[in-house]
Design brief:
Blueprint lengths: L8 H18 L6 E6 L3 H8 L7 E8 L12 E4 L11
Parallel strand pairs: 1-2
Antiparallel strand pairs: 2-3
């Protein structure tokens, strides 16, 4: 079966850079916390953070709705909660 590319790697990289610039503009001067959903968003999150022009704290959350099954149960279980205090922070 032939694969079809819907969005090119270059288009994704350009959009991630644009998002980083938007975040840099919109959240300048704030204490920003990036909350990354493990494990699927790790690479996207790290790519995005490289395009933000100021220091960002990073924390992780891990969730599951699959458990040991191959289909979702429809119930989300938190497997790892964030460790950083996000009170009064931009997230």
């Amino acid at each position: 079966m032939a694969q079809t590319t819907l969005i090119s790697k270059l288009q994704i990289e350009q959009r991630v850079a644009e998002m980083g610039a938007e975040i840099s503009r919109d959240f300048a001067g704030t204490e920003l916390v990036a909350l990354c959903v493990l494990k699927g968003a790790m690479f996207f999150c790290s790519d995005l953070m490289r395009h933000i022009d100021f220091d960002v704290k990073l924390d992780f959350i891990q969730v599951s709705s699959y458990g040991d099954q191959k289909t979702s149960s429809g119930v989300v279980t938190i497997l790892k909660e964030p460790q950083l205090d996000m009170h009064d922070k931009s997230c």
